[in-house]
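Running low. Got one?
___
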Amino acid sequence: MIRQYYPQRCKPTAFHGRPVGTIDVGTIAYLQDDYRRPVCRNPWIVLAWIPKDYAKCTAGRFHTVRLAGGHLARVRSLRDGRELTISDCHLLAADNAGLTR
């Protein structure tokens, strides 16, 4: 998923009538443990947004339904190649602290 559609926090502009998330795929962010004293040593790149999965029961059988507004991002470290799945609040905290490119 390239863009984060129908997120909780979105840009004022819309893409094809849908609200778009504030962090795009390809954004480089310096994720921190403590934002009071930021350290820019390990850059992370946003690889993809993961849509929400919901288990729905219909006629006694469960099946997976995809929902709009996924809030999990797959990121990769540009320093050592590790990959993580993180919440959008970590990326938004880095963006608010001015630690994104």
